[in-house]
Design a protein that fits this description.
This protein folds into 2 domains: 106 residues; 177 residues, Intergrase catalytic core (hpI Integrase, Chain A), CATH 1.10.443.10. The chain contains 16 helices and 3 strands.
Length: 329
């Protein structure tokens, strides 16, 4: 057996699971990266994955794999960079365990992340929010579930992974109503609920009448919703809402759009960036600054503070009151 197979097994079992205690989502993402990489390497080299060595996965092959992700699989530069991050993480581990492959590892570690153009933040205005919340048919069980789900996503800005992990016991509707979510990096946070959202969730939980550990938003069979299903729900009701709000036609509404919408609502109320970062569970406020760039109100305020072109610099001083009276005649 070559060095690659035991090194990769040790990386997942010892480094990620035992030593770092990585989340299931991180492990799944890294696993999928190496599934794709090993299958690509098999096609390129003709070798079965279990006989591949670390030197077989050299910089030229990794570079070709990254190119394959973008050109053949249609992945975005962001996804390409995430895959490269998983590969770099493994090679940092392999550098300590297998120094005999240091030359190959160093060349792979030198592959840079790719720069890409950041799109403008897409979010919904108040009319679009109202149309989306009115789209589910609340005469049906699924419609009431979807309405409560959409209302919670827009008001709290939770991630899809956080939403699908919510249990009935995570919702507290008494004094200082809030939900408790498990976010990225296994960080727990509490997000306050408005009176309107409390009313919707109280009716939904009363209808559910399930045990505290049951999913807050289940399927018909009682299982938690998948991330894919949440995306389908949002797309379905957006299509319905477009009939009453034509501006939605120009927007690609996803679950993450609703997260952006929540952040922009907070920004419009004058909430500072540091508070929004805590609200959304961002690791750094640098991530949250995209909402300042997207906020048109901030730009309007900046324009209002600037002097018109052609005016003399300096502070305005009113003329004499008598002359002002005569000028006004």
């Amino acid at each position: 057996m070559t060095a690659l197979a035991p090194a990769l097994q040790a990386y997942f079992t010892d480094r990620l699971i035992t030593q770092r205690g990585s989340s299931p989502e991180t492990i799944a993402a890294y696993r999928d990266t190496f599934r794709l990489l090993l299958r690509f390497a098999q096609e390129q080299t003709g070798k079965q994955p279990f006989v591949l060595d670390i030197d077989d996965l050299d910089a030229p092959l990794i570079g070709a794999f990254l190119k394959h992700l973008e050109q053949d699989r249609g992945n975005s530069p962001r996804t390409r960079n995430a895959r490269l991050g998983a590969i770099h993480s493994f090679y940092r581990f392999a550098a300590l365990e297998h120094p005999e492959h240091a030359h190959t590892i160093a060349r792979v570690m030198a592959i840079p992340t790719k720069r890409y153009e950041r799109n403008t933040v897409c979010y919904l205005d108040r009319d679009e929010i109202a149309a989306l919340l009115a789209a589910p048919d609340k005469r049906t069980w699924l419609g009431r579930r979807d309405h409560a789900l959409l209302a919670l996503m827009i008001q709290t800005g939770v991630r899809v992974s956080e939403l699908t992990g919510l249990r009935v016991s995570d919702v507290h509707l008494g004094t200082a109503a809030h939900i408790r979510v498990l976010g990225k990096g296994r960080k727990r946070r509490a997000t306050t609920l408005t009176a309107e959202t409390v009313k919707v969730l109280r009716a939904w939980i009363k209808e559910r009448q399930d045990q505290p550990q049951e999913p807050l938003f289940p399927t018909r069979q009682g299982r938690p919703l998948s991330r894919y299903t949440v995306g389908v729900i949002v797309a379905k009701h957006t299509a319905t809402a477009t009939g009453n709000c034509l501006s939605l036609q120009a927007k690609r509404v996803t679950p993450h759009t609703l997260r952006h919408t929540n952040a922009m609502l907070l920004r419009a109320k004058g909430v500072d960036i540091a508070t929004i970062a805590l609200w959304l569970g961002h690791e750094s406020t640098q991530t949250t600054h995209i909402y300042e760039h997207a906020d048109p109100a901030l730009k309007e305020q900046a324009i209002a503070r600037t002097a018109p072109l052609g005016t003399k610099p300096g502070r305005y001083r009113p003329s004499d009151t008598l002359l002002a009276f005569l000028d006004g005649l």
